[in-house]
Design brief:
Blueprint lengths: L2 H34 L12 H12 L1
Length: 61
């Protein structure tokens, strides 16, 4: 293997590892956001008035 080819492979490996680190960081941030909102993957449903009042009553208690 030529020296320049070796350098190219080493640089490619460094870039791949950097991309993996960035991908892990993004997925960790995304996981933290969805963990903060339970049911974040569920489709939203219309809120009934009774549910809304029950939520307000629980929040003020």
């Amino acid at each position: 293997m030529y020296r320049s080819e070796l350098e190219i492979r080493v640089r490619h490996e460094e870039l791949r590892r950097a991309a993996d680190r960035q991908r892990l960081a993004r997925s960790a941030v995304a996981g933290r956001d969805t963990a903060a909102r339970p049911g974040g993957d569920e489709p939203e449903r219309p809120v009934r008035a009774r549910d809304r009042w029950a939520r307000i009553r629980r929040a003020t208690a």
